[in-house]
Amino acid sequence: MAEAEEQETSSLEESTDESEEESEEEPKLKYERLSNGVTEILQKDAASCMTVHDKFLALGTHYGKVYLLDVQGNITQKFDVSPVKINQISLDESGEHMGVCSEDGKVQVFGLYTGEEFHETFDCPIKIIAVHPQFVRSSCKQFVTGGKKLLLFERSWMSRWKSLVLHEGEGNIRSVKWRGHLIAWANNMGVKIFDITSKQRITNVPRDDISLRPDMYPCSLCWKDNVTLIIGWGTSIKICSVKERHASEMRDLPSRYVEIVSQFETEFYISGLAPLCDQLVVLSYVKEVSEKTEREYCARPRLDIIQPLPETCEEISSDALTVRGFQENECRDYHLEYSEGESLFYIVSPRDVVVAKERDQDDHIDWLLEKKKYEEALMAAEISQKTIKRHKILDIGLAYINHLVEEGEYDIAARKCQKILGKNAALWEYEVYKFKEIGQLKAISPYLPRGDPVLKPLIYEMILHEFLESDYEGFATLIREWPGDLYNNSVIVQAVRDHLKKDSQNRTLLKTLAELYTYDTNYGNALEIYLTLRHKDVFQLIHKHNLFSSIKDKIVLLMDFDSEKAVDMLLDNEDKISIKKVVEELEDRPELQHVYLHKLFKRDHHKGQRYHEKQISLYAEYDRPNLLPFLRDSTHCPLEKALEICQQRNFVEETVYLLSRMGNSRSALKMIMEELHDVDKAIEFAKEQDDGELWEDLILYSIDKPPFITGLLNNIGTHVDPILLIHRIKEGMEIPNLRDSLVKILQDYNLQILLREGCKKILVADSLSLLKKMHRTQMKGVLVDEENICESCLSPILPSDAAKPFSMVVFHCRHMFHKECLPVPNVNSPAQYCNICSAKSRGPGSAILEMKK
């Protein structure tokens, strides 16, 4: 029996997945059979009706039994109501009162937890019953029953029940739904709605297809809310809205009216309806035609989710359900009940009860995994990690990695390890060994953790060996990127040495070995390799690890590699490698010696003064353009030695400079004129020396050379009287541009005259201005009070008795004297001067202000 149940469950799953196989769209609902007690019941009996409460289920059978079940289908209570079929069960909202009607006309309404009970037997089958939703309240003790007529039962104040006929004469009442103050029911002619408050019937919605037998294709009713009724009959669905009528429209009409807001046709016959947010769940009875026999047969029922539109609908999902005995079922045998609170939908048939529920995030992830959409499944799990129950992010991630490996996407799989494995070192090591088994260690190497966590050294060494065997460049990259403490350095060093035995000149391996030596603080060996390779990092290595003691005998190698960087480094670290040591090491390489000493001289003209004599030869040999600047800036080089070298090499400019610096200006000028034949340079030299004899020599040398004369005429005017040159020019000598030169001389002379006159005017104006300023200053009064003293006798300048006559002298230097304290003026020099300032000529203290009283 258990095996049969398993087979049926699997067939149900297969059937509900049919649409899934046809489309990649994810189903909206998931299905499972209601088993346990339900299975036992339906093996001996058949389900006829069912109603659902949030707390429990109530199932009626063809043998007149009513079972209360929990949500797993376990039987909690059993009622023997009738020997014949139970037609309908109704519960109030509290779930404390239940109404039952059966095919033999029996009606029972009773409390599940109280002794309250109502019994009645009619002379015809009672098809429907509905208790007031608030039946638990004493003011709402009402229920309706329906057979050939619709009766409203109400308990009076003396606990007696009285009945009222709400409707009759249109055939059997086959469906009823009570919501709030509204009762909706269906008979053979259509659907009516009754307002229990106003005691008025407010609408009649006729059925569309009257060709269908109402007992075989019953009407399905469903309240979406207190004012929205959904009607399904045959293949037609109508959505009706109950609205309040405006007071001005009342007259003799009910206070409410019904408006059909949506109406459309479906493909199959409707067996049940239920709301799902703004959508509808529709249970459909399907008939199909056999291709072989061309006869109709009952197909599997369908559960569709549709989106209603004003005149049509849009199908959201559609599932075919393999329920037990579907081949023998009719449209009236299926029922759709639902639990509003949990969005659970119960498909009831005589031999089966199937529960449909909205798929949760776990189901969504199941579907994604089934479709091998691991990336989306992982993302969904991360977003909903607090709500998922059956799945773990890590398990999904590991499955994703395995899938990528199986698909040959090794690089993507390795990259995903970073996110999925995180800081779990054990999982990292497991995955690395898995990649090793498939020969893809290289793929995972860029993504291995290097800090938190740190794997076993063996893992990193295994990957390094893999690269060393097949990819030197990749091996070098890993050594550069990985910290040296991740692996056993000595093991890797030995492995590299073994490979260098086969290929001793491999630059990549040599460079990598140097880096390994550096990690191992074996800087000497690393430096030696860098120098051999002439690698740019050699200077950084020396600076970083202070290896100056190791390079004292390797200065030539460093200079050969990069003289600029080497010199800068040596000069920046003179305290570690002295200038003397560097010069000695470079003795056999004078060109490098010159580079070092030249940079030293540029930094400080005095530090290498002991080598300035040597530098003269070095500049002359390797860098003549900088020789003259060196001779000019150096105060320590021997001039005689420098002159000797310059004369030997016929360096005219340098010789001229040295001769002039040694005081032999005439020889220097002679060399300019005879060797360089450059009159402009000769004139410039004469201007610098500003020596009349040099100008005379220059004129004498130039007097028989017309070009020199032109040059002198153009430049001599401001230093020597041009007449001296002009008088010596021989008559008849042709001088180039003589007229222009004479005009220039005259213009220069006129310019000098104008400058002198302008300067004179400025001087006179300034003198007059200063004189006026001094006169104004001296005309100002001088304050004399009791605090002033005579600078000679040091007594107060003013007498204590103001009535006595007194006489004082105040100089413009502000020194004051009693007149009698000053010496008597000389007859030859009547002017008086301040004794303190000792003025001997007319100045600020020479003028006198005399005060008498």
Model description:
The protein has 29 helices and 33 strands. Strand 3 (57-61) and strand 4 (65-69) form a beta hairpin. It starts with a helix and ends with a strand. Among the domains are: 271-357, no CATH class; 359-455, Serine Threonine Protein Phosphatase 5, Tetratricopeptide repeat (Alpha Horseshoe). By secondary structure, the protein is of the alpha+beta class. Mean pLDDT is 83; it is low at 1-11, 13-22 and 839-845. Helix 6 (393-406) packs antiparallel against helix 7 and helix 22 (639-648) packs antiparallel against helix 23.
Draw up the topology in text.
Layout: H1 2-16, H2 18-22, E1 29-33, H3 37-44, E2 47-52, E3 57-61, E4 65-69, E5 75-80, E6 86-91, E7 97-102, E8 106-111, E9 117-121, E10 128-131, E11 142-146, E12 149-155, E13 161-168, E14 175-179, E15 182-186, E16 190-195, E17 200-206, E18 220-225, E19 228-233, E20 236-244, E21 256-265, E22 269-276, E23 279-285, E24 287-289, E25 296-298, E26 302-308, E27 313-320, E28 335-339, E29 344-349, E30 352-358, H4 361-370, H5 374-383, H6 393-406, H7 410-421, H8 425-437, H9 441-444, H10 457-470, H11 472-481, H12 489-502, H13 507-519, H14 523-533, H15 538-545, H16 555-561, H17 563-572, H18 579-585, H19 590-603, H20 612-622, H21 627-633, H22 639-648, H23 652-661, H24 665-676, H25 679-689, H26 692-702, H27 706-715, H28 722-728, H29 738-779, E31 807-811, E32 816-818, E33 848-852
Antiparallel strand pairs: 1-30, 2-3, 3-4, 4-5, 6-7, 7-8, 8-9, 10-11, 11-12, 12-13, 14-15, 15-16, 16-17, 18-19, 19-20, 20-21, 22-23, 23-26, 24-25, 26-27, 28-29, 29-30, 31-32, 31-33
Helix pairs in contact: 4-5, 5-6, 6-7, 10-11, 10-12, 11-13, 12-13, 13-14, 14-15, 16-17, 17-19, 19-20, 20-22, 21-23, 22-23, 23-24, 24-25, 24-26
